[in-house]
Design goal:
The chain is α+β, with helices and mostly antiparallel strands. The chain contains three helices and three strands, in the order βββααα.
Length: 102
């Protein structure tokens, strides 16, 4: 794994998936969360209802990582761009696809 960006580390013993996005945001996901039906519902509802986005983030990352993600994308003026938040979430979800199918 020489590529330090956009990688996942699947730790089978701990039930935890760790990864780093292209922008350098480090995240940890409990593997059981990827099989949470409520997460599945939020993902399917997201296409038609963007208001489920915060709940989807909460289910996937939890409150501490959401705070870290907001700080990661925060602009100098203090705003948290929606576009950056959604892009990172999309990248995280895309990175998990091979793990979910294995």
């Amino acid at each position: 794994m020489s590529n330090k960006q956009n990688k996942n580390i699947n730790n089978h013993n701990s039930g935890v998936i760790k990864g780093v996005t292209k922008t350098g945001f480090r995240y940890t996901i409990q593997k059981k969360q990827l099989e949470n039906y409520e997460l599945f519902e939020a993902i399917t509802e997201l296409e038609n209802d963007l208001t489920v986005f915060p709940n989807l983030l909460k289910l996937l990352l939890g409150p501490n990582q959401i705070k870290a993600l907001k700080n990661h994308v925060r602009e100098k003026d203090g705003t948290v761009p929606i576009e950056k938040m959604t892009a990172i979430l999309a990248e995280i979800m895309q990175n998990q696809q091979p793990i979910k199918n294995s």
